Recover the amino acids of this structure.
DNA sequence: ACGTAATCTGGAATGAGTCAAGAAAACGAT
DNA sequence: ATCGTTTTCTTGACTCATTCCAGATTACGT
């Protein structure tokens, strides 16, 4: 099946330029993900199924995996939460993650260009990425929080 | 059973001060962990069993969980690898993690005291921690690596 | 239009971690 | 020292996210 022609050509081109075949699931995943950043694999699957009718879970993981390898999508795996995906790649931006609900937001690198890119002592590692995650509670969970601001670590991570 | 008297009193005191009961599994976990930083729950269980004879997996998770809540141990969960634990808490230090084998090393905060502690735009989140992970290949995996330095992202993340 | 290699389907399996119910042990007061 | 209460440990089943497998399908280069 030649995939839906309504999808912007740019997506097709990006896939092709990355050496990936253009398939309906891939276009749908990329398109949906662009509109819903920081979605989980499950959310992507649901969203894509709403457009294509049915797509296997495996296909979703394959697409996400292939696109992540090709750097068309970026995978974030916040501790204690399922992985999340976004189409913003290339710029070394960081994330703000809610401990409670997992809501994730982008944060531009605080200290300019590449401040956090080199550890003080690399111990012989070939470092290729500095990942920064700001942990806290999102506005919604702050309001819904049973423990008032007085306590500091009453929560316990899920 | 009154726990083994050979364990340094400081461990007992730390547990008590944290409001936790002093039990053999807890002492053993803390003691073993102090000597083997960045161990996985499974490794902790194995190590502790070597000292106490037998300890349930659940007990190990409970101990680690309780101690993490009391900030006697810190839990690190590098994406794609099982959680790791360490007894160094309080100092906001960061980590160097090997993408391939998961080997984890401590890194002092590169930029001094609290440079990475505040995101440029918090979006209303109540941020309480800035986690920094430097990803790369450890010296051993660098040597064992099939792809020479020429390629850049041929690996694919587990 | 064809052949082939890459991709998708469906279902089973894995691994890390958690839940639940009851037995056991530590703490605090008597 | 002993008792009762409360926390902690044991055993075993279970969840969730993700991966593995074998076979059917499909996109792409010629």
């Amino acid at each position: 099946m030649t995939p839906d022609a309504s999808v912007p050509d740019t997506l097709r081109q990006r896939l092709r330029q990355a050496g990936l075949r253009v398939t309906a699931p891939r276009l749908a995943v990329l398109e949906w993900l662009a509109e819903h950043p920081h979605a989980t694999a499950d959310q992507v699957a649901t969203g894509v199924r709403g457009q294509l009718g049915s797509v296997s879970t495996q296909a979703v993981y394959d697409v996400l995996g292939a696109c992540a390898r090709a750097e068309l999508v970026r995978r974030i795996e916040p501790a204690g939460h399922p992985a999340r995906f976004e189409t913003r790649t290339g710029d070394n931006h960081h994330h703000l993650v809610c401990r409670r609900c997992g809501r994730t937001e982008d944060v531009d690198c605080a200290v300019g260009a590449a401040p956090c890119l080199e550890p003080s002592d690399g111990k012989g590692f070939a470092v290729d990425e500095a990942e920064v995650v700001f942990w806290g509670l999102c506005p919604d969970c702050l309001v819904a929080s049973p423990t008032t601001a007085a306590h500091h670590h009453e929560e316990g991570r899920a």
Observations:
- Chain A touches chain B through 49 residues (CB under 8 Å).
- Residues 20-21, 23, 25-26, 54-59, 62-63, 66 of chain A lie near DNA strand C (CB under 10 Å from a C1').
- The mean pLDDT of chain A is 84.
- Helices of chain A lie at 9-17, 24-35, 41-52, 57-69, 139-144.
